[in-house]
């Protein structure tokens, strides 16, 4: 039997630990993670011949392991000339793989008994066997369903929380027979989960899953690296430890060759001191690992802390929960009691104090007496990734500095063709202006041209982007409507849709590696300006709206533009359509943008009073970036967002002979049946432009509407005029439609749930749904009766569960909620 060790990953998510070494070389107990894997392959399976697939920083791995003789194995290295994907890279070594072989990642920590997987493989006469195990958080892995015999029935690669139908995941440990290599094309990007497994199952080749218990952790980010050590210290996994063992009253010390520890040093828990390292007197070490060639002066206190190699620590320093990378110099009296990660080659002068758990990136000097409360180089919220649903968000000049904006632009520009054009737009907030200017500079440096639209709403930029073939992407800067301290940078494709997860990850790879494309002097990008965006947009609305209807009926509205950028265009469209209106807050005020909750509450009250007192037809609220739409009825009452959706569906269904196709989220109310609407419910994020064009309306329960006849993007401006057009066509009032909707209760709740429990909650809800009418389109939806249900979907980014309930009245809704709240509490504490 032979083995393949995958060691080519970039380690993007675990930055800054991988700034100077590849992820498989991260030390665990003073030995690289990959060394533990190689020793395990040798001892569990008796394997001698191992192929190592390299790609990122290959020289570091080759220099350490050489030919493998020092580790009792023979290592052959393979370095593909391009990124061929997981399966494609293995295919690169096909000539080496002439017998049964096991594939293991070099950057995981496990105590699985590899021999048990091999026995299962032989017993089933399998061609391909996958090791399966349950985990708390399956989001970053491939979720798998297998029957009782182990035959795999379904895969879902890196799902969202709403798609997690099991907490059993693909560990990335495979045993294959050589003939499987015939299904892997040569020199093509080919993935195990996305390509090979699909092809094998379509060819009726059974893929077997071996359920295995034990410790398994993919070390994907700095926190998971910390957690490996926490698990070691707590005895959850036992790995080989080098050095001479000495027992102490409260702990155990392992001293490697040439290391020394003063007799007065207190040892608690597990302490390892690497080769030639020295610890001076009066120090206290508790669950600490010190690499080789480190020196600790007197009276140093370390707990739950890992030092790599070549570090020095001054006297009276106190560090808890620290990861200190290679060649870090720490002076006297440095305090980090809440945790700290210090990347390679940093210098901390005396009396530096860390007030919370932060990260310091490589080659930084922190001057004496500094008090550090924010990450140096990058904000704490981006430990795992930069993007969330195509958006980067952070506090301006803290997480989102000009440096970061510049690097984002260089990363984005590096994946675009030289000479291509990108729309750049913004709102009028000072933070947006500052960050946009830095971004444009970075974009130009990669040879990409910026088309500046200045201050326009994102909906207008996205519309123009979708109709301009020569512009291939768009970036918009705005103040967040959800968190007034944050600025958002939104990235769009040529269709005006948010960039997807794969593109986001490609940008992140370049960002962290700083592998930017530098254009030659004659290829540097240029800045163009587009002054016609508003005109194109306005003309398009007039073309799509039946303007004659507005001439026939004298409709009167009150509009609140909430100090947004739509104030430049919305009044003009109203005038062109001869709509009598009162317009509120149609001017710039960046201070108001930072007080949106109070602005929204005032808008509801003010518009309602004016509409009711003057007898106007309705009120319309356009949120600052033109993305969200709300209505006030002719009676002056706010129409709740989910009721507004039902109103619009009713208007589309009235007097209509053609079937309209509508796409809604899985949690949208569904108790009303429509004659002329064909409604699909599911998850909209991730649908491409071709799929979205199949629907006339894409909407949700939060005031976001997209009419595909105009744009595939949610657009409050166009949707407001489309609503008025439908209202006039149907010769009705907003309050009459609202009153016609049958009484029912619809509510949404959030229940706190740590990410570690989200996979378990999906599994428990799936188990609870057995024998009941249910749906798994997004999350788990369970019917209680014909028109009553509860839907649970874990939040993608925050630590809670989203709960949606539809019931005939408040009493039943409360009963359903309380029943499942009790179940959730019970399941979490099991």
Report what the structure shows.
The protein has 830 residues and is of the alpha/beta class. The protein has 21 helices and 52 strands. Strands 14, 15, 17, 19, 21, 23, 24, 26, 27, 29, 30 and 32 form a twelve-stranded mixed beta sheet that branches. A hairpin with a 6-residue loop joins β36 (471-479) and β37 (486-492). Residues 378-384 have low confidence and may be disordered.
What is the element layout, followed by pairings?
Layout: E1 2-7, E2 27-28, E3 31-32, H1 33-45, E4 49-54, H2 58-65, E5 74-78, H3 85-91, E6 101-105, E7 108-110, H4 114-123, E8 128-134, E9 142-146, E10 152-157, E11 168-176, H5 192-202, E12 208-211, E13 216-218, H6 222-233, E14 244-248, E15 250-255, E16 260-261, E17 266-273, E18 278-279, E19 284-290, E20 295-296, E21 301-307, E22 312-313, E23 318-320, E24 322-324, E25 329-330, E26 335-336, E27 340-342, E28 347-348, E29 353-354, E30 358-360, E31 365-366, E32 371-372, E33 391-395, H7 402-414, E34 421-426, H8 430-445, E35 449-455, H9 458-467, E36 471-479, E37 486-492, H10 501-513, E38 527-529, H11 533-544, H12 547-552, E39 556-560, H13 570-576, E40 580-584, H14 590-593, H15 596-614, E41 618-622, E42 629-632, E43 638-639, H16 641-653, E44 660-665, E45 677-682, H17 689-692, E46 697-699, E47 705-707, H18 716-729, H19 734-740, E48 745-752, H20 755-769, E49 774-775, E50 780-785, E51 788-794, E52 800-807, H21 810-828
Parallel strand pairs: 1-4, 1-6, 4-5, 8-12, 15-17, 16-18, 17-19, 18-20, 19-21, 20-22, 21-23, 21-24, 22-25, 23-26, 24-27, 25-28, 26-29, 27-30, 28-31, 29-32, 34-35, 34-36, 35-38, 39-40, 39-41, 44-45, 44-46
Antiparallel strand pairs: 2-3, 6-11, 7-13, 8-11, 9-10, 9-11, 14-15, 33-37, 36-37, 41-42, 42-43, 46-47, 48-52, 49-50, 50-51, 51-52
Helix pairs in contact: 7-8, 7-10, 9-11
